Amino acid sequence: MFSGAIVAIVTPFDGGGIDEPAYARLIEDVIAGGVSGIVPCGTTGESATLTHEEHERLIDLTVDLVAGRVKVIAGTGSNSTDEAVRLTRHAMKAGADAALLITPYYNKPTQKGLYEHYKQVAASCDIPLILYNVPGRTGVNLAAETTIELSKIDTIVGIKEASGDLVKCSQIVRDTPGDFAVLSGDDALNYPILCLGGKGAISVTANVLPSKVSTLCDAWLKGDAETARTIHLDLLEINQALFIETNPIPVKTALAMMGKVREEFRLPLCPMSGANRERLASVLARYGCI
Questions:
Q1: CA 100, CA 85: separation in Å to the nearest integer?
Q2: Enzyme catalytic residues
Q3: What is the CA radius of gyration of the chain?
Q4: Tens-digit pLDDT profile for residues 231-274
Q5: pTM, two decimal places
Q6: Domains of the chain
Q7: How far is it, in rounded angstroms, from Cα 9 to Cα 202?
Q8: CB 160 within 8 A of CB 100
Q9: What is the dihedral of CA 20, 277, 289, 41, to 10 degrees?
Q10: Which pLDDT band, with edges at 50, 70 and 90, does 1 fall under?
């Protein structure tokens, strides 16, 4: 159901508010670049600093702008189960194709707590759910065994895995149903996770080079492993550069250098340091982005 290159899209700001015209242009750019899906209100979209009204507006806007051309997977996770249910219900009513739910951050729940959290969201919302495991951001690691148990719930259809643990990814692919989508959540591991049986990637780099990431995923899914491997190696430098500071600072800075968005963040995120800015600009120039 969910495969290929899915972009974790940034949220452009202008004067403190959401820059809707710039956001609409970004959506057109990534769709033209061949992505199979768009994730609004994820970590890359600075969801932690969006108001509830802005969060809901972005999901509504994304569904309207995409107009069925690609999948919309709305970020609806929270460290509060009740809030995750409310956001997911809104995504469902808005017409999103699925919801992406990050593990509850800061609370550091047990594996049982994580299981019960996702089970309750699934019981409360009739929409496909994709788990999101990124322990480096949340402070909690969704165990492979917990993911495997959750995959038995009909509406839990996949996971965005950003733990960097390829052994865990292997176990999840092996022990979940064949249609359960393991999606890379780390651009540097997109190709390795595809090789293990992953279905695609939820990508930061696809904001900047959507056609490259899309071609990598499409090539692999069509059985052209050599093309996918070649693109993976070619993207290695930019994949690393887009994480030289906390995401989404580098990718948003890159898009600003490309003239696509304003270089505007919400505190506590702030502009890049001078040395990293120079390094990023050099990398973008080598890829022909600026």
A1: 12
A2: 132, 160
A3: 18
A4: 999 999 999 999 999 999 999 999 999 999 999 999 999 999 99
A5: 0.95
A6: 4-224 (3.20.20.70)
A7: 10
A8: yes
A9: -30
A10: confident
